[in-house]
Amino acid sequence: MIEKRLFIVSNRLPVDVNESGIANQGSAGFASAIEIYMQNSGKDESATFSQSFWVGIPGCSAEYWSKVAPHLPIHVTTLSDEDMLFYMIHH
Fold first, then answer.
1. How many C-beta neighbours within 10 Å does residue 8 have?
2. Which residues contact 61 (CB under 8 A, 6 or more apart)?
3. Which residue has the higher pLDDT, 80 or 46?
4. pLDDT tens digits, 38-74
5. Is the distance from CB of 23 to CB of 16 less than 8 angstroms?
6. What is the mean pLDDT of the chain?
7. At 15, is the secondary structure helix, strand, or coil?
8. Does the structure show a pLDDT above 70 at 19?
9. Contact (CB, 8 A) for 53 and 6
10. Distance CA 54, CA 31 (A)
11. What is the pLDDT of residue 43?
């Protein structure tokens, strides 16, 4: 069987973090549409992905994100302030 991977790149992650540092599933249209697709693709073996990756910005401060990220079923990779500044200047 061919291994399929799904990469989603968007400006936001599919979670919202409130001021208490609690994450909830995002309510944005794109995240909701992808969730429905992923639920339905599980019913069709030919459409199932072996891995999925979502790349985006958490939409909250680094302080809040550091409280939440360890409790989410995700792997977090962050950019340094220098890398983020470089990206903002050149894009």
1. 15
2. none
3. 80
4. 777 766 666 678 888 888 777 777 777 777 777 776 6
5. yes
6. 74
7. strand
8. no
9. yes
10. 10
11. 67
- Amino acid at the residue 35: E
Distances (CA, A) of 69 to 19, 21, 60: 14, 9, 12
Contact, 16 vs 59, CB < 8 A? yes
Domain range list for the chain: 5-90
Residue appearing with tokens 């977090």: 76
**Structure token pair of residue 80:** 């340094």
At 89, the amino acid letter reads I
Return the bridge partners of 8, or none.
Answer: 54
- pLDDT score recorded for residue 74: 67
Average pLDDT over residues 31-44: 74
Q: How far apart, in whole angstroms, are the C-alpha atoms of residue 2 and residue 43?
A: 17
